[in-house]
TrEMBL record:
GO molecular function: ATP binding; ATP hydrolysis activity
InterPro entries found in the cross-reference section: ArsA/GET3_ATPase-like, ATPase_ArsA/GET3, P-loop_NTPase
Organism: Actinomadura namibiensis
Gene3D superfamilies reported for this sequence: P-loop containing nucleotide triphosphate hydrolases
Pfam families from the UniProt entry: ArsA_ATPase (PF02374)
Protein name (database record): Anion-transporting ArsA/GET3 family ATPase
Transmembrane segments: none
Domain of life the protein comes from: Bacteria
SUPFAM superfamilies: P-loop containing nucleoside triphosphate hydrolases
Domain ArsA/GET3 Anion-transporting ATPase-like residue range list: 13-180
Length: 331
């Protein structure tokens, strides 16, 4: 699938959010790899200071600079940036107020923490501003430095406030550099070049937060992207077996006979009971997934499904997820 056959033609800033525990950082990393395939250059930005990107790509903790962390299929490159709020604030002071020395002195006095605590909107402007600058940055020949930027953003419950920086700074500044900077950020965030994607599991709470988050974004005019259903458990039983397990109507004697035929004669009854309990739990989880999938079908956004990786998410698994996203048209 070529880059022009995707669901997100023209989008250059992909913001990835999701309820905690849904695999948001993993999906952001896989999306960056998918977008970079075919010789493109993509920047993956982390704003929460957890060094999750470094762990996924099995590299040392990232400094406050853009570094290549992976080569995508067909020669593309993924760069990563872990934004340090303190360093970014110093950079911001130098850029707009020529206060680099003062900024470094401020860190020693703890003023940076003070500023970002009493004016959290300023912190969000700094984080989103650094990302939007990377989206706009160009080479001397006029080409963009990065073909796309992927932001591993804060969780769903905070994403609207985080991105809607104009409202956040309205009480801080009506004019001047802070206001101008926020306006510049919002021009990027509200443009057709931005999409805010949601990561969810097929569970009640993540799905509800996804639906609520999409509604909140639309209410403030921010661009909604796709829904990434992560870690879907494929059904391991046939439909009639699922129905029997869900109704706890499994033939325990038959399971015992199967266990004995596998050579576990001595403890066959106990093993069979454990297997039956596992089958019941699996049937109920499958029914829950199907119910939540039906709820997600009410959302008119593109949906992508990523499988549960039985061996966990290592670098090879990340490439598998990226391939799945490309095959589904996400990149």
């Amino acid at each position: 699938m070529s880059a022009k056959d995707t669901d997100w033609d023209g989008v250059r800033l992909h913001v990835v959010t999701g309820k905690g525990g849904t695999g948001k950082t993993t999906v952001a990393a896989a999306l960056a790899l998918a977008l970079a395939a075919g010789g493109r250059r993509v920047l993956l930005v982390e704003v929460e200071g957890r060094q999750g990107i470094a762990q996924l790509f099995d590299v040392p903790p990232l400094p406050y600079e853009e570094r290549r962390v992976a080569v995508a299929p067909d020669g593309g490159e993924v760069y990563a940036l872990a934004i340090d709020t303190e360093e970014a604030l110093i950079e911001y002071l130098e850029m707009f107020y020529n206060l680099k020395r003062a900024g470094k002195a401020m860190t020693k006095l703890g003023v940076v923490d003070f500023v970002t605590t009493i004016a959290p909107g300023l912190r969000d402007v700094i984080l989103t501003g650094k990302t939007s600058e990377a989206v706009r940055r160009k080479e001397k020949n006029g080409a963009f430095v990065y073909d796309a930027v992927v932001m591993d953003a804060p969780p769903t419950g905070r994403i609207t406030k985080f991105l809607n920086v104009n409202d956040e700074v309205s009480g801080l500044a009506k004019v001047g550099p802070v206001r101008n900077h926020a306006d510049t950020v919002m021009r990027v965030v509200r443009s057709p070049e931005t999409a805010v994607h949601f990561v969810t599991l097929l569970e009640e709470m993540p799905v509800q937060e996804t639906m609520d988050g999409i509604t909140e974004l639309r209410e403030v005019g921010l661009p909604v992207g796709g829904v990434f259903v992560n870690m879907e458990h494929p059904p391991l039983l046939a439909e009639d077996e699922l129905a029997a397990a869900a109704g706890e109507r499994l033939d325990l004697d038959e399971i015992v006979r199967g266990v004995k035929s596998a050579g576990l004669e001595d403890d066959a009854e106990r093993v069979a009971a454990v297997l039956a309990a596992e089958a019941v739990a699996h049937a109920r989880r499958t029914a829950l997934q199907r119910r939540e999938k039906e709820r997600l079908e009410r959302i008119e956004q593109p949906r992508y499904t990523l499988p549960l990786l039985s061996d966990g998410v290592d670098l090879a698994g990340l490439y598998d997820l990226a391939r799945a996203l490309r095959e589904q048209g996400a990149a």
